Amino acid sequence: TLDGSEICDDGNDADHDGCSALCEPETPRWTRLNPSQAPSARQGAVMVWDSNREVVVLFGGFVDGQPPSNETWEWDGTQWTEKSFAVTPPARALHHMAFDTYSGVVVLFGGWTGGSDRDNDLWEYDGLNWTPIVTLTTPPARSSAGFAYDPYRRTLLLHGGFSGTQTLEDTWEFNGTDWVEKEPTISPGALSN
User: Structure pTM?
Assistant: First the structure.
C-alpha cells in the first residue's frame, strides 16, 4: 500500500518522508505543526490518549508562568479544541492522569494546586463531563507520582510522588470503586518526577 507521497510500500501506515525507488525503509521524523488554535505555553500539564474517542486530552499546568490552570484541551490529530464544562477539577499542575480502557474514561488524581498545597481528589472525564469520584479510602495528597492503568487487572496503579514536604514510597490501586494500599515485597522506592 502506498501511503501519501511514498514511491513504494515500506510496510507501515504513515507517510513520513517517502521511500526511494529502491524501497529503503523510511526514517520517522518529527513534523512541526502550526494549528490555528492551541493551548498557551505551559509546564506541569498532563496529556493522555483517549483510545475510545481517538483524541489526546490535556489538563491543567502552569500557563505562561502563572498559577496552575484548570483548562481542558483535546487534540484530534489536526486541531486543538478547548472544552468548557459547568463542573471541572480545580486548577492544578504535576497531577496524574491515565485512560481507563475498561470504563472508557480519563481518570485524574491529585496534583499541585498552588503554594504548598497538594490534592488527593479523584475525577473522571468521559469526553462530555468531568465528574468527581468519592471513595471510602484515599491515598495521601501528592504531585509528580507514577500513575498508569493496568488493562489486564482493570486497575489504576499509583506509586510515589511528592507530598509537599517529603518524597513518598507508597503504592496504591484504584479498582473503579475504591483505593487499596498495597505493600509489595519489592518496590522501586521513592518516585518523584
Answer: 0.81
